[in-house]
Each structure stands twice: as structure tokens, then as C-alpha cells.
Amino acid sequence: MTRLALAMLSTCTVFALATPALANSGEQVLADVCGACHTRDEQGKYSRIDDSRRTPEGWDMNVVRMIRNYGLDG
Ligand code: HEC
User: Which one of 3, 32, 47, 56 is at 20 to 30 Å from 40 when CA atoms are compared?
Assistant: First the structure.
């Protein structure tokens, strides 16, 4: 096997391992931090969060607002 193929193989392995871990922690943050106030309905959707549509920038601003307004920084 060539050096390049080996390098590509290991990069793919890292991505394959990293992606589920990232998805997990996002879910975890939502459940742990946001779930304190945003309860889930019978379909497992978070109140106000699942039914709002915004741009990535809008989400950033919203999360900052949640942190600032509701003291989530510590
Ligand atoms: C301490 C309670 C509390 C926590 C924790 C909390 N929120 Fe909220 N959130 C609220 C309240 C109350 C509202 C409605 C009033 C408002 O928009 O500020 C709201 C509104 C929202 C909205 C709708 C805003 C809009 O303009 O329509 C979104 C989206 C949202 N929260 C996302 C989140 C996310 C993501 C997190 C976790 C990072 C989070 N919230 C954590 C209390 C909370």
C-alpha cells in the first residue's frame, strides 16, 4: 500500500469515529442544558426549538441570548 493511501485511510477512520461523537454531544447539550426549560412533546420535539427556522447566524445569536438571558454560562 502506498503512503498516500495509508494517510487517506487513517483520515477516513478519524472522521468515521469523530462524527457520531460530535452528534452525540450536540444532542447531549440540548438535553442537558436546553431541556431544563424546553420540554419535549409526545413526538420528542423540543418546545420552541424544533419549530423555529433560522440561519446558522440566527442560531448563534439565539444561543448567545439564551446564555445571557437565562444565565447558562456557569
Ligand atoms: C432557563 C430556561 C431556558 C433555557 C435553559 C433555555 N431556554 Fe430557550 N427559551 C426560554 C424561554 C423562556 C423562551 C421564550 C422567550 C424568549 O424567546 O426569550 C425561549 C425561547 C427559545 C427559542 C425561540 C426564540 C424565538 O425567537 O422564537 C429558541 C430557538 C430557544 N429558546 C433555544 C434554546 C436553546 C438552543 C437552548 C440551549 C442552549 C435554550 N433555548 C435554553 C428559556 C430557556
Answer: 56
The pLDDT tens digits for 23-58 are 567 888 888 889 989 999 999 899 999 989 999 999
Ligand 1 binding pocket includes 63 (Cβ within 6 Å): yes
Give this prediction's pTM. Answer: 0.71
Alpha helix stretches (DSSP H) within 1-74: 3-32, 56-70
| End-to-end Cα distance, the chain | 50
What pLDDT shows up at residue 62?
92
How many whole angstroms separate alpha carbon 55 and alpha carbon 63? Answer: 12
In the chain, % of residues over pLDDT 90: 39
**Residue nearest (by alpha carbon) to ligand 1 atom 11:** 37
Residue 49 near residue 30, CB atoms below 8 Å = yes
**For residue 38, how far is its CA from the centre of ligand 1 (angstroms)?**
7
